[in-house]
Amino acid sequence: MADYDVICMGAGPTGLATAIEAKRAGMRALVIDKGCLCNSIYHYPVNMVFFTTPELLEIGDLPLVSPAEKPGRVEALKYYRKAAEHYELEVRLFELVLRVEGSDGNFTVHTRTEEGAPQSYQSRKVVVATGYYDLPNELKVPGEDLPHVSHYYTEPHAFWNQDVVVVGGKNSAADAALDLYRNGARVTLVHRDAHLGQSIKYWVKPDIENRIKAGQIQALFETRVMEITPQEAIVSNHGGEKRLPAKQVFALTGYHPDFQFIQSLGVHLDPVTCKPALDPNTLESNVPGIHLAGVVIGGRHTGEIFIENGRFHGKQIIEALNAKRMTAESH
Asked: Is residue 1's pLDDT more than 60?
């Protein structure tokens, strides 16, 4: 007999929402994550404010009460901790899933704890909700692994009166450039396209455009980073090569799901979009018993799925499993 009815990989809002729905349906659920609870949100910029209103982040019918119109990172983390406590979810954190063996109705999930101890759990079904924020889209240039290069932005204070290069042209790059500028850094934004991304938040776009126009943030468009040295970022555009002094380089060029891991489960990915093969109604993949939830469904198009819509995937999966169970019991 399997230990669990459902094992959710990923303790973000989607994984937690799935486990909550399973528990409410009388199933035993386990959530496993290689990092902390809501590891992605934890690694967001310290003062980040969400794009959405509080009710769009809610899971398990628990209200998220925020004094502001849009909640921030700290409020969201507190809310998801409380949700896990309220539903008394079984959660294994800082445990890496290595592989999944077995088949529908009898899977074995093999993991390794932070201390290196092997663990394994049996489950009837598996839900993959691993997100994408822990795998940055790398620039693939020499010097990218230097200690002053980061694919995550945290806070600006240390860069007061310093030269900082921000690479990218979408939300995270625009937010970081503005925050750094407002806290006294000398910022150069480097973007490979001719214009900033269309998806930039409507209240951020005019702000960043005006700072660039006023020369308060230097911007180099149609420009690529060629190399990063301990003191400089070497960039190139139609005007030739340029050396930008850089105390810090933030390479904020987006993130992607762990496609290799998803394929290791036997799930087929589209060769172009990397979208997984799945039933749109049950979110079951081509591997019976393995379901996908959250942003991993979007493949390379990580901008299509957010907490707002990903949080409903759990309900969809559990309802499908329940219907299947009821049909089986009635025969």
From this structure: no
Confidence of residue 2 (pLDDT cuts 50, 70, 90): low
Q: What is the mean pLDDT of residues 134-139?
A: 91
Instruction: Write the CB contacts of 302 (distance below 8 Å, at least 6 apart in sequence).
Output: 132, 254, 255, 256, 257, 295
Q: Which residues have CB under 8 Å from 225's CB, separation 6+?
A: 139, 141, 167, 190, 233, 234, 235, 249, 251
Exposure string (b/e) for 99-125, b if CB count within 10 Å is 16 or more? ebeeeeeebebebeeeeeeeeebebbb
- What's the pTM? 0.89
Range of the domain at 229: 149-251
Those residues with Cβ within 8 angstroms of residue 213's Cβ, 6 or more apart along the chain or in another chain? none
Maximal CA-CA distance, the chain: 73
Q: Cα separation of 167 and 180, whole Å?
A: 13
Distances in whole angstroms, Cα of residue 326 to Cα of each of 231, 321, 323: 64, 9, 5
Between CA 109 and CA 99 the distance in angstroms is: 6
Cα separation, 314 vs 191, whole angstroms: 37
Same-domain check for residues 271 and 213? no
**For residue 239, is it within any domain?**
yes
Q: 60: closest CA among 42, 86, 78?
A: 86
The domain spanning residue 52 has which CATH number?
Answer: 3.50.50.60
Q: First and final CA of the chain: distance in angstroms?
A: 21
Q: Which of 143, 140, 167 is nearest to 231 (CA)?
A: 143
Beta bridge partners of 120: 110
Q: Is 207 exposed, middle or buried (0-12, 13-18, 19+ CB in 10 A)?
A: middle
CB atoms within 10 A of CB 82: 12
Residue 87 in domain: yes
Please work out, in degrees rounded to the nearest 5, the angle formed at the alpha carbon of residue 234 by the alpha carbons of 182 and 160.
20
